[in-house]
C-alpha cells in the first residue's frame, strides 16, 4: 500500500466517539494492533487496570486472550464474543481498511451471567491478589444480557465502518492532492492518469468558475467539470450542471456556500468544513482549494451516517433510555446554566415512585417499566416547555422550574398528583411522592435547595405509605381473584375456618390477624401465572404443573417487597409444604414448617374438597374429613388435623 494506514486512521476522532460511547452505554473499549499492543483505551474496569493488566501472569493471559479472540473471527462475522482466560467476556470488532486487517476494536470486561465468586477467590489466591479488593473490583463488573450486547455491537460496528470509510476517503484525498500539487502543465501531461483517478474516486469532485459582480463580490459560480461520484452523492446530473450556474440549478442555495468558495477562489487558501445540504438532506465534509485565480475545486464526502451515529451517541449520553427524559448527567450539566440570577425564583420538584418494587416483583419488570414510562409521561405533560424534567435514578425524578415561585410550583405538583389519580391502573394505581423547594436569592446554595426538596419528598412518602400500601394490597387481592378460581366466598370461608382453628390453638390476636391475611393471600404468587394455566379445565401438562409449583416462591418475593405483607411472606412460601417432606418448594419436614402455613394447608384442602374446582366435583363434609384423617402425618400436621376434624364434627 503506497500510503500508510496508521498515518491516516483518525484515532483522535475515534477516541472522542468511544469516550462518548462509554459514557452513554458503560461499555469499555480498546484498540489493539495485530500483535496485541494497546493503541488506545476508554473506561477500562478496575479489575483489569489494577489487577489483570498489572500482574505478569494475568497480563500474559490478557495478551493470549486478545490474540486468540482477534484470530477467531469467522468469515462473515462483524464481531465475535469470547470468555477470556481471566474469567471476563470480551468482544472484538476487526478494523479493515481497503481489505487490510490492521487492528481490532475490543469491548467487554463484563459477564453474561452472575459470576462464580468461588472461581475469583481461587484466582485471587493463585495470583496473590488482595482478596477483598479483588472481589470488590469483580462486583463492579456489570452483568449484561447477550441481547443488549448484540444491540450495542451494531452501534460499534457502525462506528468502525464510519471511521474506516473516512480513512479511505482521506487516503484517496491525499493521493488526489499529491497529484494536484503538480503544475497544470504536468496535469495535462498526466491527463489520462488524472482522468482515471477523477472518474473512479469515491469522493465527489467538481471544478468551478467563480462569478463576481462589479464590486468584486462573489455572487454565483459555474460548474466546469465533475465526476460520477459527485452526481451520485448529490443526486444531480452532469448534463444539468456543467455549463450552468449554481443559482440556476439550485435556486434556494444559501449565500454562505458562495461566500466560502468566493474566498477560496480569490485568496488561493484551502478550506475544509462540515455542512448540511438542505436540497440533498445530507451532511458533507467539503474540502475546497483553488487550482488558479478565479477558480475553485471541491471534494465532497458524505458524512450523513456518521452524523446520525454521533447524534445517537449524544442522545444516549444525556437521555434516559427507558423514558426518553433527560438523565442525571444532563441535569448535572444544566444546573450550572440554570443557577443564575436571571432564572430566579428557581424551584425544584423531586419525585419518588410509590410501589415500583412491588410492581416489579408482582408483575415483572416489563410491567414496572410501563409504570415508569406512564408516570414519566404524566410528569412531562404536567410541566411547561421551559421546564427541565429528568429521571435521576431507578424510581426518582427531578423537575427544574426556572422563573417559578413556590406557589406556581405547587400548581404543577397538584397537576401531577391529579393526573396519577385519574390514570388507569396499570395494573396498580399510579402514585408518586413529591417534594418542593425554591431558591429566591442568588446567594443560596442550590444543593441545599435540592436537599430541602428531597427531605419534603421523603416526609410525604412516609405519610402516604400506609395509604399507598393499602391501595396496592387491595389491587393484589382483586387481581388474585380475577386471575384464579378463588372467589370472595372462598376467601371468606378460608378466613373463618383458619381463625376458628387458630382460636382452638390459643393463638394471640396478632397471630390471628396475620393468619387472616395469610388466608386471603396464600396464593398471591398465582397472579404471576397465566390465566390459561390457572383456569384450565383439563389435566395440566408437566410443563404447566412446573409453572404452577413456582407460585409460593413468587408470592414470597412479592410479600417481602411490601412492609405490610412481610409477616405473611413465610406462610405464603410454605403453604404447599407437607408434613412428610414431600411438598414444595423447600421440602420442609414436620415442625420446620411454620405453624400458620400448616393451618392454611389443612383448611385450604378442606375447602377445595367440599366446594370443588372446575375440573373436580365437591365431596361431602364427612368424605373430606375422612380424607384429611387419612393424610394426617403425611400431608398434614397430625395434631392440627385431629383438632380440626374434632372441631368441625362438633360444629
Topology:
Layout: H1 11-25, E1 28-33, E2 38-42, H2 46-52, H3 56-70, E3 80-83, E4 89-97, E5 100-110, H4 117-126, H5 131-139, H6 146-180, H7 184-189, H8 191-200, E6 204-212, E7 218-226, H9 228-234, H10 238-241, H11 246-249, H12 255-267, E8 271-277, E9 282-289, E10 295-302, H13 304-318, H14 328-338, E11 346-353, H15 356-363, H16 365-382, E12 388-391, E13 396-401, H17 406-422, E14 432-439, H18 446-483, H19 488-504, H20 509-521, H21 531-534, H22 542-548, H23 551-560, H24 569-574, H25 595-611, H26 621-631, H27 638-649
Antiparallel strand pairs: 1-2, 1-5, 3-4, 4-5, 6-7, 6-10, 8-9, 9-10, 11-13, 11-14, 12-13
Describe the structure.
The chain is an alpha+beta fold. The protein folds into 4 domains: 11-168, 2-Layer Sandwich (Beta-Lactamase); 182-307, PAS domain (Beta-Lactamase, 2-Layer Sandwich); 321-472, Alpha-Beta Plaits (2-Layer Sandwich), CATH 3.30.70.270; 484-649, Hypothetical protein af1432, CATH 1.10.3210. It contains 27 helices and 14 strands. The strands form 3 sheets. The chain has a 5-stranded antiparallel beta sheet with strand order 2-1-5-4-3, with helices on both faces. It has a 5-stranded antiparallel beta sheet with strand order 7-6-10-9-8. Strands 12-13-11-14 form a 4-stranded antiparallel beta sheet, with helices on both faces. Helix 15 runs antiparallel to helix 23. The longest helix is centred in the last third of the chain and has 38 residues, at 446-483. The chain is elongated and about 120 Å long.
Amino acid at each position: 500500500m503506497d500510503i500508510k494506514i496508521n498515518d491516516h486512521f483518525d484515532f483522535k476522532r475515534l477516541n472522542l466517539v468511544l469516550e462518548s460511547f462509554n459514557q452513554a452505554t458503560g461499555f469499555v473499549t480498546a484498540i489493539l494492533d495485530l500483535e496485541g499492543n494497546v493503541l488506545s483505551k476508554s473506561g477500562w474496569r478496575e479489575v483489569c487496570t489494577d489487577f489483570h493488566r498489572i500482574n505478569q501472569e494475568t497480563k500474559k493471559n490478557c495478551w493470549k486472550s486478545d490474540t486468540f479472540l482477534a484470530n477467531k473471527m469467522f468469515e462473515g462475522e462483524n464481531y465475535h464474543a469470547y470468555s477470556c482466560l481471566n474469567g471476563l467476556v470480551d468482544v472484538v470488532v476487526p478494523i479493515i481498511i481497503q481489505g487490510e486487517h490492521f487492528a481490532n476494536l475490543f469491548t467487554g470486561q463484563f459477564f453474561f451471567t452472575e459470576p462464580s465468586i468461588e472461581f475469583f477467590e481461587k484466582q485471587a489466591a493463585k495470583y496473590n491478589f488482595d482478596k477483598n479488593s479483588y472481589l470488590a473490583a469483580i462486583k463492579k463488573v456489570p452483568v449484561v444480557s447477550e441481547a443488549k450486547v448484540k444491540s450495542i455491537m451494531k452501534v460499534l460496528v457502525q462506528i468502525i465502518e464510519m471511521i474506516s470509510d473516512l480513512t479511505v476517503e482521506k487516503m484517496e484525498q491525499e493521493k488526489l492532492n499529491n497529484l494536484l500539487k503538480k503544475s497544470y502543465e504536468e496535469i495535462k501531461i498526466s491527463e489520462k492518469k488524472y482522468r482515471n483517478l477523477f472518474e473512479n474516486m469515491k469522493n465527489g469532485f467538481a471544478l468551478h468558475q467563480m462569478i463576481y459582480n462589479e464590486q468584486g463580490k462573489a455572487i454565483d459560480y459555474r460548474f466546469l467539470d465533475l465526476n460520477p461520484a459527485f452526481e451520485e452523492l448529490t443526486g444531480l446530473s452532469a448534463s444539468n450542471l456543467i455549463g450552468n450556474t449554481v443559482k440556476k440549478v439550485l435556486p434556494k442555495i444559501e449565500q454562505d456556500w458562495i461566500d466560502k468558495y468566493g474566498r477560496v477562489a480569490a485568496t488561493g487558501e484551502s478550506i475544509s468544513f462540515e455542512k448540511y445540504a438542505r436540497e440533498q438532506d445530507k451532511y458533507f465534509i467539503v474540502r475546497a482549494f483553488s487550482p488558479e485565480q478565479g477558480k475553485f475545486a471541491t471534494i465532497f464526502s458524505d458524512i450523513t451516517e456518521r452524523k446520525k451515529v454521533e447524534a445517537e451517541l449524544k442522545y444516549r449520553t444525556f437521555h434516559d433510555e427507558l423514558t426518553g427524559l433527560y438523565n442525571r448527567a444532563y441535569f448535572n450539566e444544566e444546573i450550572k446554566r440554570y443557577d443564575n440570577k436571571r432564572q430566579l425564583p428557581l424551584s425544584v420538584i423531586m419525585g419518588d415512585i410509590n410501589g415500583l418494587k412491588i410492581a416489579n416483583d408482582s408483575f415483572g419488570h416489563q410491567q414496572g417499566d410501563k409504570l415508569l414510562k406512564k408516570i414519566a409521561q404524566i410528569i412531562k405533560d404536567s410541566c411547561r416547555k421551559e421546564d427541565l424534567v429528568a429521571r435521576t435514578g431507578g424510581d426518582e425524578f427531578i423537575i427544574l422550574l426556572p422563573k417559578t415561585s413556590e406557589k406556581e410550583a405547587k400548581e404543577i405538583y397538584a397537576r401531577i398528583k391529579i393526573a396519577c389519580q385519574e390514570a388507569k391502573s396499570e395494573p396498580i394505581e399510579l402514585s408518586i411522592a413529591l417534594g418542593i423547594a425554591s431558591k429566591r436569592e442568588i446567594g443560596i446554595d442550590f444543593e441545599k435547595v435540592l436537599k430541602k426538596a428531597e427531605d419534603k419528598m421523603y416526609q410525604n412518602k412516609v405519610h402516604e405509605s400506609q395509604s399507598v400500601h393499602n391501595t396496592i394490597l387491595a389491587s393484589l387481592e382483586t387481581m388474585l381473584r380475577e386471575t384464579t378460581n378463588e372467589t370472595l366466598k372462598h376467601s371468606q370461608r378460608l378466613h373463618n375456618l383458619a381463625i376458628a382453628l387458630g382460636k382452638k390453638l390459643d393463638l394471640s390476636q396478632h397471630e390471628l390477624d396475620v393468619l387472616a391475611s395469610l388466608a386471603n393471600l396464600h396464593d398471591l404468587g398465582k397472579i404471576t401465572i397465566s390465566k390459561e394455566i390457572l383456569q384450565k379445565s383439563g389435566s395440566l401438562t408437566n410443563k404447566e404443573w412446573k409453572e404452577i409449583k413456582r407460585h409460593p416462591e413468587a408470592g414470597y418475593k412479592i410479600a417481602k417487597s411490601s412492609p405490610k405483607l412481610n409477616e405473611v411472606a413465610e406462610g405464603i412460601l410454605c403453604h404447599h409444604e407437607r408434613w412428610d417432606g414431600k411438598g414444595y418448594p423447600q421440602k420442609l419436614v414436620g415442625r420446620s414448617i411454620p405453624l400458620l402455613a400448616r393451618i392454611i394447608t389443612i383448611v385450604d384442602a378442606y375447602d377445595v374438597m367440599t366446594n370443588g374446582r372446575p375440573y373436580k366435583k365437591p365431596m361431602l363434609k364427612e368424605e373430606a374429613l375422612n380424607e384429611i384423617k387419612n393424610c394426617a402425618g403425611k400431608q398434614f400436621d397430625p395434631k392440627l388435623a385431629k383438632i380440626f376434624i374434632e372441631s368441625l364434627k362438633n360444629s
